[in-house]
Amino acid sequence: MTGIEFKLTHTDGPARRGRVGTAHGVIDTPAFMPVGTAGTVKAMLPESVAGTGAQIVLGNTYHLMLRPGAERIDRLGGLHRFMNWPGPILTDSGGFQVMSLSEIRKITEDGVRFRSHIDGSYHTLTPERSIQIQHLLDSNITMAFDECTPYPATEKEARTSMELSMRWAQRSKDAFVERPGYGLFGIVQGSVFEDQRLESAQTLADIGFDGYAVGGLAVGEGQELMFGTLDFTAPALPVDRPRYLMGVGKPSDLVGAVARGIDMFDCVLPTRSGRNGQAWTAGGPVNLKNARHADDPRPLEEGCPCPACTDYSRAYLHHLVKAGEILAMMLLTWHNLTYYQRLMRGMRDAIEAGTFTVFQKTFHETAAAGDIDRL
């Protein structure tokens, strides 16, 4: 096997069901990747993450290069061994974090020079260095280095950014070391402008990647504009390669994006929400801080197999949240990741059965009805 393998097994309209084969295991798509920014999915043990149904996690080049350092992780056996995650790992290129976390940065044709948000030290990240770091981490899916175009951006600003990212994409491809079970994804940019997105997609397809990501969305443009951009971007991507929508999103975002042909997702929302007292359910978000849960003996969500739902009441979860107990963060994160994986499995099953339209209708009706504490 050269690179990663992708097999498209079923389609239902634009929605796709497939399997991605890597050196560390198979990923069933549509797939949601929990975010393990610094080599850990916050408040979760690796085996607990796997127990939710997750098959792949995301690591972050920017954070890991700054602490503890890519070379150190390499010496200690790579990120899989370092974080005790035997399954596939995708690493982002670090570009988004450089733009969002570094107050002092300078973008040139060569790359980005920036100050660490940790200690103020200066670093330079180029396409070549980003690919090298991801190689040292032993990432199964490496992301090309790009500039995440901010929103809003003028057509001229978006084009300048997109064209720079496309030049960096070629350099990323040139720097990538091909080996069995490891792949490189290109990232489509172009903001919300159709001609730029199509040009970017074609440029990346001409370079040739193992998969294609849609970047520069979920940055403030709103769901309607995001879906509109996917409507013309996803069909422009190669059919025989996985498609990854970066940094998305809410459950309704995932369902709508799968309906438009997207295969892979990541987002901090389920873990961040869990650490802040919010649970995601089929009936929408539930705020466990609210006093109405204080005397509620029912589970958070009927039928959910996670420990938060099988072993504890809403009243107890409410108590933990109000008391600021670490267990609240653990249990709610566990629940949220379980819910997200159940949602993905439900979409995979529906696409296989040819009932994805029915699945969408039921999903939206259940969410509109509200969470179970209003019944």
Major β-sheet, in short? 8 strands, parallel
Estimate the helix proportion, in percent.
Answer: 40-55%
Total beta-strand segments: 16
**CATH third-level topology of the largest domain:** TIM Barrel
* Level-1 CATH class name of the largest domain: Alpha Beta
Provide the CATH architecture of the largest domain.
Alpha-Beta Barrel
Average predicted confidence as pLDDT: 96
Report the span from N to C terminus: 52 Å
Give me the side-by-side strand order of the main sheet.
Answer: 4-14-13-12-11-10-6-5
Tell me the structural class.
alpha/beta
The overall number of domains is 2
Structural Rg? 20 Å
Given as residue ranges, the uncertain stretches (5+ residues, pLDDT < 50) are: none
